[in-house]
Hints:
single chain, mainly alpha, 3-stranded antiparallel β-sheet, two-stranded antiparallel sheet, 19 helices, 44% helix, 8% strand, globular, binds alpha-D-glucopyranose
Amino acid sequence: MNRPEWLARLTQGRPTMSAGEAEAWRRLEESVVYFGGKPVGTVASMDRAASAQNYDQVFTRDFFVSAVAYLLRGDFEIVRHFLTVTLDLQSAERHMDCFRPGQGMMPASFKVSGEGDEERVEADFGELAIARVTPIDSGFWWLYLLHAYTRASGDESLAKSEATQRGIRLILDLCLPPRHEMLPTLLVPDGSFMIDRRLGVYGHPLDIQVLFHIALRSADGLLDAPADDPLRRAVREREAHLAHHLRTYYWLDMAGLNRIYRYEVEELGENAANQFNIYPETIPTWLFEWMPRDGGYFAGNLGPARLDVRFFSQGNLLAILGGVADASQAEAIIQLFEDRRDDLIGETPLKLVFPALEGRDWSLMTGSDPKNAPWSYHNGGNWPFLLWQFTAACLRVGRRAFAVEVLDAVEERLAADQWPEYYDGRRGRILGKQARLNQTWSIAGPLAARCLLDAPDKIDMLTFGEPSRPASCDAGVLAGAGEPADTRGEVQS
Ligand code: GLC
């Protein structure tokens, strides 16, 4: 079936589809990029009024959102082609020199140029991006998409092919070698994921850790290898340790705040309770008022004497989908969205990071970046593409009505505003200062959310079964000293 026929069938098949939704599908279709006559991805934005910069490229992380919408609609072809084109682009040679991608890296974006025999695909691994940021998330999104594609389509041939198995192993080789670290988290530079500018998200930012965990879980299911294969065992062990670490040390709620508030500092040795030597004075006072009684969330970053308590929506929502959050943590995160609705959902869901960096913090942590001014863009702006993650996470914890309410309230407004890339302001009331219109993931995010609400069973393609739990997970020094996660709800006297 060709694509216009597919679109016609889609809209006919759903007589209740609103005008805004039908228009959104049409726009998504317009964003499709072809290579060799086959659909291979969607461009980042179709804003004809703004200069293209690199928004005319297919971004791996942006396409994931389009792919979820397509998979939910039963259109597998474009996703399969995207996976194979990016697999061909994966950096397969060993490079040690500057500005060349390490072996196993997946591109941040690609572009199709030329025509006929001259037609070619050019990849960008960040070497052409502003500030030359490294897209560490690309390989993780790729693995997650391969997992979702395989589950949704039932086609195992792509995952099992020799080329794909090699690609999976190359990504894992990049993440699992011996390191100068003893934590299961991944050490990354600033701007290495969706937040691709300086924002104090270097070190061990939550979004990357949770995506890493999802990538490991995807690889575990996709690797064509016996359970005792050394790489497979390494994947399972790291995945379990990582989940344990995040659940235990990143989790914040009233009980945790009470504990941190009364922490001893400068503790040596194995029995230190304050493992990262967090000074209680560094916890901002607003948080003691803001944290709801029944809510909680994963902190944005953790390192020596560093606990970034900003709330990152993507990391927290993906923690629910990938299973980093246990059942009560998952409920607590959605409860937080409900209790702090004005701050986290506002008028145009959802806040990417809360709160914004302001004053000297903004100046020092963003390098005085005017695009990331307080309550704008990454620094406290609202991003509609997150709606698919929010809806999926709500469904996961049985809060469908909440997801319906949030989506119903914004769908028509997004269409009327022509699906801006982001909104600014504390409540996301105003169009983002430099936001593009017809931003593809702002179109695809709400569409995917609507599809999920129509067919909630399909959420399975985005989730995983029971996590692995090697015995060694509880024995390490990490598990020994900190308060275990299951003391939530207790208030220490
Ligand atoms: C911006 C976003 C990035 C996105 C790109 C294309 O740079 O920060 O996450 O992938 O635009 O939409």
